[in-house]
Amino acid sequence: MSTKTYDVRTHGCQMNVHDSERLAGLLESAGYIDLASLPPAGRPDVADVVVFNTCAVRENAANKLYGNLGQLRPAKLANPDMQIAVGGCLAQKDRSTIVERAPWVDVVFGTHNVGSLPALLDRARHNKAAEVEILEALEVFPSTLPTRRDSAYSGWVSISVGCNNTCTFCIVPALRGKEKDRRPGEILAEVEALVASGVIEITLLGQNVNTYGVEFGDRLAFGKLLRACGQIDGLERVRFTSPHPAAFTDDVVTAMAETPNVMPSLHMPLQSGSDRVLKAMRRSYRSDRFLGIIDRVREQLPDAAITTDIIVGFPGETEEDFQGTLDVVRAARFSSAFTFQYSIRPGTPAAEMDGQVPKEIVQERFERLIAVQDDVSWVGNRELEGHEVEVLVAPREGRKDAETHRMSGRARDNRLVHFAVPEGAQVPRPGDAATVGVTYGAPHHLVADSGLQGGPYSVRRTRGGDAWAALQEGATPGATKKPAVSLGIPSVGAPPAREVVVAACSPLG
User: Fold this and answer.
1) If we measure between CA atoms, which residue out of 328, 313, 312 comes closest to residue 275?
2) Which of 54, 353, 392, 410 could serve as 88's disulfide partner, Cβ 3.0–4.6 Å?
3) How far apart are CA 483 and CA 198, in angstroms?
């Protein structure tokens, strides 16, 4: 029997992206191979197993899923042995409704039982019937599962799953459950294993990273974790997402400032600049507190790039409320913002609120917000013209790189940088670091063509670049090569001593 192929299609947040790496690891451990790893000439149009890892936050999430499922129906009819699986937040929410609306789906699994996918596929194949398995609570922390990571030099590390907040617009706590924290030793062991494999950048993930440690009784645990990451040799860049303003403490700001490999970038969700709307959202902070946090970050990290999330048109939002949001956007000087038009999410308290704002008003406010934020972003980026930045080079960051003859990557503050390589100069590999001079600040990125003008240009080869290059050896043109499957970090038995017995000078103390 020939080896079966798989294709994992991801929608939604970074948590979903990391979950998809685990789904890929599980499928590879079960003997499947990634469809994208095959040479284009011999690659089938559709994989033997197609997995949708879904999101339930956006309004059109369900429409997108069922549209994609409809497109696969002819392939399923042509090849009944092909299997389709749906997981993630929308699967947790809609459950058996998915099979009712799309009877050609073979497996539906939830956010708490990612590890069941291979067994559910086997069961559905044997029974010739759809398998729907949705657990109500997490039984195994996902980081114990095999993982097929997308990058050789950059990795996600989950520090917690779930959320204890009760924001009225958000369905995530109902789908991901209460917050569950990993022990520091397990997290650091995973980071150290990644670094040993060539990773030089990690992003700590959680629905609310700065409440990390509450479950085991240490409210300062997140700042300590950042400092501990600073002690790991070979780890060059540490990022995290996302904190909640209500739980953001000064010790985290100080840990960021005093730990050289923690990057000067912060994603801090605002959601609204109106105190009245924040109260209706059950966001337990107000605009003054939010701006106070921003001020304290900039006192210790003056070059930090701060990004945010903003919702326009929350139920009851008035023009005065919206003006409050614009005022905070101007005062906070965000480097960029993820802006969303409020949409009703069934099952959330906000869905039942009076004062739903008409669509045309929401659209008009949304466009005004985009214009203001673009102006703010542009001013901030223009201020960087003439400055040198260190770019961690990445493939596929610049959609127009082939046309513009540039390369792309992220600066330390996470700004996107497109840069030119001077003729005859060393060409960096993905995972290498290039130091370049910014020649133009655009609203959404920086251009660094200084090398073409005799200005700064240098390349520092890194272990991350070495790891990327090793993957390319023997690679078929057009095929995607990813790092080997890692087996996960076990958490069986008593916690290691390093989590409990800590020397006074240790960053975990």
Assistant:
1) 328
2) 54
3) 10
Cα(290)–Cα(55) distance, rounded to whole angstroms? 28
For residues 246 and 285, is the Cβ–Cβ distance under 8 A? yes
SS3 assignment for 451-467 = HHHCCCEEEECCHHHHH
Contact (Cβ atoms closer than 8 angstroms) between residue 366 and residue 313: yes
What tokens were used for 139?
């039984």
| Rounded CA separation 70/428 (Å) | 42
Q: What is the pTM of this model?
A: 0.87
- Alpha helices, H only, 79-165: 89-94, 97-101, 117-127
- Structure tokens given for 57: 């936050």
pLDDT in tens, the chain (509 residues): 478 999 999 988 888 888 899 999 999 999 999 998 888 888 999 999 999 999 887 667 778 899 999 999 999 999 999 999 999 989 998 888 999 999 999 999 998 889 999 999 999 999 999 999 988 777 667 777 888 888 999 999 999 988 999 999 988 888 888 899 999 999 999 999 999 999 999 999 998 999 999 888 899 999 999 999 999 999 999 999 989 999 999 999 999 999 999 999 999 999 999 999 999 999 999 999 999 999 999 999 999 999 999 999 999 999 999 999 999 999 999 999 999 999 888 889 999 999 999 999 999 999 999 999 999 999 999 999 999 999 999 998 888 888 888 999 999 999 999 999 999 999 999 999 999 999 999 999 999 999 999 999 999 999 999 999 998 887 777 777 788 887 666 543 444 443 433 333 333 33
Q: How far is Cα of residue 136 from the mean position of the Cα atoms in its chain?
A: 24
CA 369 vs CA 95, 294, 323, 361, 442: distances in Å: 36, 20, 9, 12, 18
The residue with tokens 């936050």 is 57
Q: Give the tokens for residue 506.
A: 């240790």
Report the alpha-carbon distance of residue 82 to residue 93 in Å, rounded.
25
Residues 164 and 173 sit within 8 Å (Cβ to Cβ): yes
The closest of 106, 59, 41, 56 to 80, measured between CA atoms, is 106
CB 112 within 8 A of CB 133: no
Q: DSSP 3-state assignment of 123?
A: helix
Alpha carbon 294 to chain centroid, angstroms: 22
| Distance in angstroms (rounded) separating the CA atoms of residues 297 and 258 | 12
The 10 Å Cβ neighbour count of residue 70 is 12
Nearest CA to 125 out of 78, 77, 81, 91 is that of 81
Nearest-angstrom CA–CA distance, 312 and 50: 35
d(CA 481, CA 317): 48
Q: How far is CA 69 from CA 16, 103, 113, 253, in A?
A: 19, 10, 22, 45
- Beta strands 406-411 and 388-393 are antiparallel
Tokens of 4: 């079966």
Residue 205: which H helix or E strand, with range? strand 201-205
